[in-house]
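User: Run a structure prediction on this.
Assistant: Running it now.
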Amino acid sequence: MSDIRIRIEGRAGRITLNRPEALNALTYEMCLAIEDALDAWQSDDNIALILLDAEGEKAFCAGGDIAEMYETGMKGDLAYGRRFWRDEYRLNAKISEYPKPIVAFLQGFTMGGGVGLGGHASHRIVGDSSRVSMPECSIGFVPDVGGSYLLARAPGRLGEYLGLTTTRMGPGDAIHAGFADHYLPEAGWEALKAQLVASGDPAAIAAAAQPAPAAPLADLKPQIDALFAAEDLRALLNGLRHDDSDFAAQALKSLSRNAPLSMAVTLEMLHRLRGPSLSIRRALEMEYRVSHRIMQKGDFLEGIRAAIIDKDRTPKWRHTLDRVPAVHLSAMLMPLGAEKLEFEKPRESGMKIGFIGLGNMGAPMAANLARAGHDVAGFDVAGTQAEGVHAVATAQDAARDADVVITMLPNGAILRDVAAGIIPVMAKGAVLLDCSTVDVESARAVAEEAAAAGHGALDAPVSGGIGGAAAGTLTFMVGGDAAAFEKAAPLFEIMGQKAVHCGPAGNGQAAKICNNMILGVTMIATCEAFALADKLGLAREAMFDVVSTSSGYSWSMNAYCPAPGVGPQSPADNNYTPGFAAELMLKDLGLAQQAAEAADADTPMGQTALALYQRFVEEEDGRGRDFSAMLPRFENRGRG
């Protein structure tokens, strides 16, 4: 193949990109050829390492060859692009996980698809000409090919800055950000390549490397961390607009050129990925959710048109900077079900899952599992059913022969009763995964009963509400043994954006009640502050703009604002129709105080919040309303 040279030299398998006139842009055929070579060399004992480089001085690889994607996409053929991305992402994962050293020499432009090739190698070498970036937001896409994985690992909030501004990094910055490992002027590259080919020993790299040049981005860390830590795109923009520094002005100028939906999705992706559950596969799977939809529901085709087809540099994006609907963002990141990105061939068969409790939360969670290809049997005492889930007559029928049994139940007493009925019929080694929010004592008692019967057990209450259950964006706080957590991990990835293993049984419930005690207290404070602002003559929008970008910043203010028409869309904009009902907050605050009493913990703010929500739900008009409906309550009250 003229576009790529693949051969064996000495102890090295060598892959050289050979399209210098096209800045070594990666074609679909080149991806397939590289993967075939890596597969063949993996078990070849004569090959000690892989050497990956490119012809020409201008670029290692300036990205994927997207002209064909544009042409096929404009004809309504979405299959070509999806196939390209599926196979390319599988290659990216293979490079990251390859059992032999891969050494990449990244001269000139290394962008997008080039980062996917060279950025996941075990040994990444840059020189004075190196310019590394993820420019996807400028063409209506998102950082992909595992770029989100690298961005999520970058120091502080540098990942958000690089992903949204599409800033190009020189060699020092690339090493600082985690996109490269070693610096060596290009004049020394050929001699190093010769050593590697002859010896097959990557130790020669460290011996040849020189101290990295300065990293200007390291000096900007305080500004980047302060201004790019916002919860969402609008809050980030507000922060930049209220900062009078040259840095903020330049960053705002960069963002104003890029696709708003792409930036909002990129920010959300990085927030979901960052943390202990981060892996290259998790990042690529999330990226593929966007890739799969980007031609139909995003700005990708328009971005390519403006950048490389018509070259007018005036794209007409679908949204303005300040108006990216949350529903459009969520739609891009919804699980793909049977279309989910797979990394192995043939595709692994799905699990057999029993799901007990198909209410407002359980039904969409079970449906997402079924869409992902799992065999889900569901039971609910009310006869509720879920899409793709086959209904059974009893909880025992749902649990029998299942790999994992998931429960989503109202309280600890019901959980204990259901567990007593299903544990005896569960197959030994199955996992009982309880996603209810119950008292810690019940969670631990059920876990002990399951363990005694030879089953794994996890208490995994959720955060994210009905919308998060439908969108597959829940956060799971998980208690239980590590082996059970590992078995359930693929299911967490389908139902949610993050699963945090909090320790032994009961710790998931402990984390949930602590989290929701904070939420209840901060929502009350946020509602009180808005009511006070009204009476002081301060406009709600002005208050939001100040508080959301200063020390009053909180989830209750920035992501779930209780004031209608202010901030992102929230239940307040729908007459306080519940996203999280006030009576559920009352339940969680009660569980928190029950735990506090058992642990002899002093929680006066939690006690006060419980008393206020109890009055709101049981004596006032709070039942059936969202927990943020505390705001109209405070609006109509004085100090007496």
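The chain has 29 helices and 18 strands.
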